Each structure stands twice: as C-alpha cells, then as structure tokens.
Amino acid sequence: MASNRRSSAEPGHSESVTIIEEVQKEKGVIRRYQQGRFLGKGGFAKCYEFTNLEGKQVLAAKIIPKSSLTKNRARQKLMSEIKIHKSLNHRNIVQFLHFFEDSENVYILLEKCANQTMNELIKRRKRLTELEAQCYLLQILYSIKYLHNNRVIHRDLKLGNLFLSDQMEIKLGDFGLATKLEYDGERKRTICGTPNYIAPEILEGKEAGHSYEVDVWSFGVIAYTLLIGKPPFETNDVKSTYKKIRTNEYSFPEQIQISSAAKNMIKKILVTEPTKRPSLDDLFNDDFFKTGGSIPKLLPVSTLACPPSVS
Ligand code: ADP
User: Which end of the chain is more exposed for a tag (fewer CB within 10 A), N or C?
Assistant: First the structure.
C-alpha cells in the first residue's frame, strides 16, 4: 500500500487543504482522507484529525515519518505496536482502525478521542473526587483485565495514555511498549523505552523478569495521582524518582483528605514484591469500589472543568 499527499489552495482561499490518498499497487487510489486539525505530538508521531472523504467519519491519524524508522529496531517496535493494537477490541481501548504507508510516512488510523487525556484533566482539575476516581479506575481495570486476558501487558500505563472520548469514556491507548506473552507464565526481561510509572522489578532488572504485575503497579500510581494530584514518587530528577521507587518511599500528604478505603487500596498495590500485589479480581472486589451509592458509568463533560455537583 502507498499513498500520495496533495496540498491545494481553493481559489479565493489562502488556506490549503491537504488530501492524503491511500494507494494500492493493483487498484490505484482506494481511499482519500482530508487532513484536519493537529491533535498532539508524541515521541515520533504527530497526530491529526483525518476525515475519510467517502464515509465522512472523523478519525485520529498518527503520522510517523519513515525517516524516524531508519534503525531496524525502531521499525520492528512500530510493527509490534501495530500488530498488538490491531488485535484488540474493547470499549475502553482506543479502537485501531487501519494503517497504511507511503514513501514518506506510516499512517495509523485510530478512533478519535475528543476530550484529550487524563493528563490534561488533572492539570485542569488538580485532583478528582473519590466518585470520579472510582468511575475512571473501574474503566481502567476493565481495559487492563481485557489486555491480560489476551496475554498483553501494556507496560506504560500513565495518565497521558488514558484518553477520553466525546462521551467521557476511558480509552487506553499507545501500545508502543506493550508486549504479548507467548505462553502463560512467560517472564519478560527487557523493555525498550522508559515507562513513566515504572515498577521496581523493572528498575532492578531482576533475573526473574517481570510480568502482568507491572500494570497493577502503574494502576496504583494512577489511583494515587488522580486522588492526590501528583504521582507518589515524583521528584525533580529521574534518578531520585527511581531511588524512591526502589526504596518504596512515598506518603499521603496530610492536607489532602482521602478515604481510608482509597489509602488501603493504594498501599496494597504499591508494594515492592510483585507477587504480593493484588490481582485484578481482588481490585474489582476492593472496598474502595464498594460505595453506599452507585458509581456512575460515565461522568458529564462539565467535569473536565469542575467537580460533579453531587459527590
Ligand atoms: P507516541 O506513540 O509517539 O507517543 P501518542 O500515541 O502519545 O504518540 O500520540 C501523541 C499525541 O497525539 C497524544 O498525546 C494526543 O494528544 C494525540 N492523540 C493520539 N491518539 C489520539 C486519539 N486516538 N485521539 C485524539 N488524539 C490522539
């Protein structure tokens, strides 16, 4: 598959329109997309809104320049990301739609998530109410449960990879560091890249390797960050953060009130020994999710800016 990029300015309009054509060797142009608004930038990729000119659906397109894939390893990593992401289908995971390439770029077409990521949410809101945290953390657990059931470990769970749809539903994305185990009980020894909410056993480069428990660790870091407003091991430099992770040095600031159920769940998760961490089923059944009332399935869009009225 190949594509062509055409930019043209309509007469009387100064802004040019970029059309990306998906070309197949035998069939010629098979699809045309109009490139729209810039959505964001990652390590290698730039992300734009794409409109499929036939169906008029609006998608998110991750554009990766081939010039960034000259090293075999970078290309292999991207191919592994595509292979894993393509195989997944769950309402709390960014839906992979399609991918194609031309001489310049690789294009990955994804479900568009209109309300940015939980990173922007926390920047704006500082921290969330417990009800909101319960609602989001349950959805995050559903996405991790689905991955682990399919022998996939995400290995880079963090606020910036948790997207929010127009309906405010959690969509886990970015499978750049993910791995698929070939058999139950397989242990992974290496990881390319630096996960943000890294588990201590990865830092120690343990002989025994790492597995699903690294995602549970990151889930704990996410829970803490949503409720407290900053990550538990945050410092001004990576080295000190890693030291704090290795020595399990974190605390709950006194000035922030959180329930003992929330604290207990986080304490159970953030333990150095991976086998001592709760399983996903333990977490679904944790007291933190046993509230008197019911936990909403979705929150209103207004909560992007202010807490929900009843909390
Ligand atoms: P990389 O893999 O290079 O880190 P990301 O997957 O993090 O790239 O994407 C980079 C940015 O593009 C994100 O921070 C976000 O702003 C935007 N983005 C990525 N995927 C989507 C999506 N499905 N919907 C909307 N915006 C997206």
Answer: C
For residue 124, the CA-to-ligand 1 centroid distance in Å is: 19
Pocket test for ligand 1, best of 37, 47, 69, 118 (most atoms within 8 A of CB): 47
DSSP E strands in the chain: the ranges are 2-9, 16-24, 28-41, 46-52, 58-65, 96-101, 105-110, 152-153, 162-164, 170-172, 179-180
Query: What number does the ligand 1 atom closest to the CA of 173 have?
Result: 6
User: pLDDT (tens digit, 9 = 90+) per residue, 50-75?
Assistant: 999 988 899 999 999 999 998 888 89
Model pTM above 0.90: yes
Which are the catalytic amino acids? 156
The ipTM value here is 0.95
